[in-house]
């Protein structure tokens, strides 16, 4: 029932988003588009819609994987420094090879994001914190250290404006021919579904997973590789979407439980729906101008993050 509602809501809002914009396009005019309207729909609005759906679904599933592997509901690519690592990787790629291709930049961003994810998991294993709330706080501090290094490097090379562009998720610049790398999210999500059972077992811990015949280290490395790949592709294409991977898995777990296989589809649908809602809000709140999705998501996400912390404290007594 919930899956059908999410799918229906997502399809309805996806249709609405095609008609939101400065150039008027109405349902009645879809069958007789002027050349300008046809260009706007095919070159801008449909690519923008596709990038929203792919980025929202991919980052939400990446957050679900991180929470399973770290065994903590407050961990996500944003609160584990993975997105910061991807941004630093893109910056390094620009500095080392300014004329590098998009695939080369994604490869370097992936390596930095994976390094950040591995470092965060090593910190979680070594720092024995009894209160689970402190783990994402450690991740946020770790991400801020990476972000500070990126800011210093960007300042030294006069690239601060470029770095700021990567800090905020923004779909206003998405055009046909500039977003297609986001389709890499599709096979990564399929790989996540194939490993869903193993991720769930790995979430029970090293000893439990090994006793059930699961290669724990291999599963963790596959999961972190998926998270790093999705983060690198999204950051390089549309920028950072804060707290998305934190909020969506928590909402879905309230009615789907902790079995990742049962939660994957709803997580993808709700993640895409949430980004689409934020995008429509950003496009109409100061019409005909736009507010970036990253800003809208940051406001909603930070409020939801605080609500989750308070709820956790309340349940802990």
Explain what the structure shows.
By secondary structure, this protein is an all-alpha fold. The protein has helices at 2-18, 35-70, 82-96, 102-126, 134-156, 160-167, 185-194, 196-202, 206-211, 216-237, 244-256, 260-284, 293-316.
Secondary-structure element pattern, one letter each = HHHHHHHHHHHHH
Span between termini: 33 Å
Low-confidence stretches: none
- The portion of residues forming beta strands comes to under 5%
Q: What's the mean pLDDT score?
A: 85
Biggest sheet overview = none
Number of helices: 13
Q: Considering DSSP H and I runs of 4 or more, what fraction of the residues is helical? A: over 70%
Task: Count all strands and give the number.
Answer: 0
Family: Belongs to the binding-protein-dependent transport system permease family. FecCD subfamily.
Subcellular location: Cell membrane
Membrane topology: Multi-pass membrane protein
Protein name: Iron chelate uptake ABC transporter family permease subunit
Concise overview:
Helix content is 73%, strand content 0%. It has 13 helices and no strands.
Layout of secondary structure:
Elements: H1 2-18, H2 35-70, H3 82-96, H4 102-126, H5 134-156, H6 160-167, H7 185-194, H8 196-202, H9 206-211, H10 216-237, H11 244-256, H12 260-284, H13 293-316
Helix pairs in contact: 1-12, 2-7, 2-10, 2-11, 2-12, 3-4, 3-5, 3-10, 4-10, 5-6, 7-10, 11-12
């Amino acid at each position: 029932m919930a899956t059908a509602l999410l799918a229906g809501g997502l399809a309805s809002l996806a249709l609405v988003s095609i008609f939101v914009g400065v150039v008027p396009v109405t349902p009645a005019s879809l069958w007789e588009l002027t050349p300008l309207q046809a260009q706007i729909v095919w070159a801008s609005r449909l690519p923008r819609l596709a990038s929203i759906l792919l980025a929202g679904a991919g980052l939400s599933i990446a957050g679900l994987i991180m929470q399973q592997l770290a065994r903590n509901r407050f961990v996500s690519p944003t609160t584990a420094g993975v997105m910061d690592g991807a941004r630093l990787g893109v910056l390094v790629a620009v500095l080392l090879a300014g004329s590098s291709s998009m695939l080369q930049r994604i490869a370097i961003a992936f390596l930095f994001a994976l390094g950040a994810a591995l470092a965060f998991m090593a910190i979680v294993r070594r720092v024995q914190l009894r209160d689970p709330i402190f783990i994402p706080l450690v991740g946020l501090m770790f991400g801020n250290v990476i972000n500070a290094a990126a800011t210093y490097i960007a300042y030294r090379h006069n690239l601060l404006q470029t770095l700021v562009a990567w800090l905020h998720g923004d779909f206003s610049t998405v055009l046909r021919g500039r977003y297609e790398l986001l389709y890499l999210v599709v096979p990564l999500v399929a790989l996540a579904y194939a490993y869903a059972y193993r991720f769930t077992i790995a979430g029970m811990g090293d000893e439990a997973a090994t006793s059930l015949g699961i290669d724990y280290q291999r599963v963790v490395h596959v999961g972190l590789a998926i998270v790093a790949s999705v983060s690198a592709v999204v950051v390089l294409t549309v920028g950072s979407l804060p707290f998305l991977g934190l909020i969506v898995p928590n909402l879905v777990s309230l009615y789907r439980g902790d079995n990742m296989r049962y939660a994957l589809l709803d997580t993808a649908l709700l993640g895409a729906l949430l980004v689409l809602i934020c995008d429509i809000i950003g496009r109409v709140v100061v019409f005909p101008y736009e507010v970036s999705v990253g800003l809208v998501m940051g406001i909603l996400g930070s409020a939801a993050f605080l609500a989750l912390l308070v709820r956790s404290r309340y349940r802990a007594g």
